[in-house]
Design brief:
Two copies of one chain form a homodimer.
Chain A lengths: L16 E6 L11 E6 L4 E6 L7 H12 L4 E8 L5 H19 L6 E8 L6 H14 L5 H7 L8 E9 L2 E10 L12 E6 L2 E2 L1 H14 L4 E2 L9 E6 L7 E2 L6 H21 L7 E9 L2 H13 L1 H8 L5 H9 L12 E4 L2 E5 L2 E2 L5 H8 L3 E7 L5 E8 L3 H9 L3
Parallel strand pairs in A: 4-5, 8-11, 9-12, 10-18, 13-17
Antiparallel strand pairs in A: 1-2, 2-4, 3-11, 6-7, 7-8, 13-18, 14-15, 14-17, 15-16
Helix pairs in contact in A: 1-2, 2-3, 5-6, 7-9
Chain lengths: 405, 405
């Protein structure tokens, strides 16, 4: 089930990036489940990771390697998260990096490992390592789409996006892929997302741009409120010394940052559209707050409420459930009598109660759309915030009650 | 569906309390949906209400009346929450109190109104008022069970409990009834719960006792994380001047407080057992925290996680989902490698990973029980906290996607 997810767009290759995918038999049969991304020698790399205190082994290793050296490889597997695997899991992730470094004659700490899948199962190191020779021969600049498919778990469709920008009159590209469908409530990072640009960008600009993009995109989506143990989002800039360097003070920085944010937003929204069991893509747009933080409190309370989510599944304009979620969200001194709410363009609540000319059938028609916008005015100030989420369907329960069996 | 809920126990009448229930046709047909509780002239009354900023009209009126006079009547209807109804809702609740005061020749502010049901529908004042004469003739000391049935909404079974205690060698009773099945995450109060004792208790002791009992019982349950707009829990003590007065310094106070807490705990657990779609009653017992607050953070994160709740529905010992919820709960400096977790008596996680002799089949058998205990040691200190919750089933989605239609 997906909520209005379109076909994967054409993903423009990025100079300096080659990708390969193989079926390593980690968990799935008859499909790719291991991807490798090779970064050119001039590449710089920025990354953000989950803030869950329970961090998967590859997150720990990738963070460590990133602090030591310039990455040359991203190694990504689906089917096994290598999380909750203790010292053995750390050793497994390290051994994968060492084996890959032997294959390519590079330093082990230039390999960043990423894993997604079931938590707590022994990591099948040997299956990955056995597939490295095939991975090495398969590297190609046009491997983005196949890699987007290889990293899927409960995802039903691959996710990717491309955007363009100019630096000093020259055209550059940002292309990214992501996976994610459940355990989605990113905190400073998302599930797995991999972006690259052929521009030359200095480290400070690269990190700043990624942090801002993630804060406004991946960190604004929620499927189930469950922050993953494996969240990671990485961005590489491959441009060599001949290209102009984008710094934070370069006139092209904002155009570059917009392109990165655009790709992040499309990937983040694609994750919500492909959320487990999703039938609707819901934009919760809260404005009129004193601070952005209180708008986020209200938007997240609405987006996480199982009562709201089941009402959305039923296309039931049960506006009291939305308002009750706003009421309990924890904003000090909130006056519910000043709150207004719209389903789409339809004003439903004013002064804390139903509008006089309320048309329930019309409200139901708005909620029956695949794309639903719920706007809430807190009536307290001028700040705003948006959260994107999905509904809670029978299919969600089926998927999560049966995922391991 | 209920998770191991036993038959309603025999509810001991409380001297000074009479109850009546009628079918007023508020929403349901062929069943009682309106109850009246009459308190004797010596009764004192303490109450706690929802802290949701979105408060139903009866909550606003009841709180106001309680501050003005000693209550003589609790008027409780099911089927319409009179919430989100604006000024018209306030007027409706007030008019019910005035009409009832004319029926019984008392002051309007001695009536406390309580409502539960659908949010945002016009309150059918006249249907209630028309039923008052029949209510007046039906008052009886043994009306507890029938009242427990009259206040049900999505509840599938009535909920009540009785406990006994002694003051100066004399026997007294606490009896209570409650309703609640969804929108359950009480904050300083629960859904609707009504308790009474025939002891004589001074106001300070009554309020103190209720607040403590609620904090450790109703405020420790969650079904869906959604705090209701109508939560209220009231306790009356009907004892007259001939009875010894229980104060906070009276030697019988602790026995009295224990009896109230016992009744509250049974009612609170009954609400979870009858939670919408519940197939399991889950005790999340977190210990080894530096503070009780951080134990509650962890327990609530586990209890609210849809991934944990669907795993419980499937009896799937998917321990990584539990640990991931602990990891994201927001405890600063939590070291996941010190965390231990048990399913029932079975140690599953030690040092942040699976124990060496883990027996998945045995873990599955534990989770397949109706009553499941999940114990978590944070490995940081000596504090602890318990939360009771239910699982997330297909039936939950069905109930909440279809409740209004």
């Amino acid at each position: 089930m997906t909520a209005g997810l379109v076909e994967l767009p054409i993903l423009t290759p990025v100079a300096g990036i080659r990708l390969a995918s193989v079926a390593a038999g980690i968990r799935y049969h008859g499909r790719d489940d291991l991807a490798l991304v090779e970064l050119g020698p001039d590449a710089r790399c920025a990354a953000v990771f989950t803030r869950n205190a329970f961090q998967a082994a590859p997150v720990i290793i990738a963070r460590d390697h990133l602090s030591q050296a310039s990455p040359r490889f991203w190694l990504i597997n689906a089917g096994n998260a290598n999380a909750g695997t203790g010292d053995a899991g750390i050793e497994a992730a390290s051994e994968c990096c060492r084996a890959l470094s032997r294959q390519f004659d590079c330093a082990p700490n230039t390999v960043l490992p990423f894993s997604t899948g079931v938590i707590g199962e022994t990591f099948p190191t040997q299956r990955l390592v056995s597939a490295f020779p095939e991975l090495a021969t398969g590297l190609a600049a046009d491997g983005w789409e196949r890699a987007a498919r290889a990293i899927m778990t409960t995802d039903t469709v691959p996710k990717g996006a491309t955007a363009n920008f100019q630096v000093d009159g020259k055209d550059f590209t940002v292309t990214g892929i992501a996976k994610g469908s459940g355990m989605i409530c990113p905190d400073m990072a998302t599930m797995l997302a991999f972006l690259a640009t052929d521009a030359r960008v200095d480290q400070d600009a690269l990190e700043n741009c990624l942090q801002h993009a993630v804060a406004g995109t991946f960190n604004r989506i929620t499927v189930d409120g469950d922050t993953s143990t494996n969240d990671a989002c990485v961005l590489a800039a491959t441009g060599g010394p001949d290209a102009p360097t984008v710094t934070r003070s370069h006139p092209a920085y904002s155009e570059f940052a917009d392109a990165v944010a655009q790709v992040c937003e499309r990937l983040a929204q694609a994750i919500v559209r492909d959320a487990e069991g999703a039938t609707r893509f819901v934009t919760v747009d809260v404005h009129g707050g004193e601070t952005e933080a209180e708008c986020l409190l209200a938007a997240r309370a609405v987006a996480h409420s199982p009562l709201v989510k089941t009402a959305l599944f039923a296309a039931d304009p049960n506006w009291g459930r939305f308002l009750a979620a706003v009421g309990r969200c924890g904003i000090t001194g909130l006056n519910i009598n000043k709150v207004e709410m719209w389903f789409g363009d339809l004003l439903v609540v004013r002064n804390g109660t139903l509008v006089a000319d309320y048309d329930e059938a019309a409200a139901g028609r708005v909620l029956a759309q695949t794309d639903v916008r719920v706007a809430i005015n807190l009536g307290r100030g001028r700040e705003s915030a948006v959260i994107w989420t999905s509904d809670l369907s029978h299919e969600y329960v089926t998927i999560n009650a049966e995922y391991r069996t």
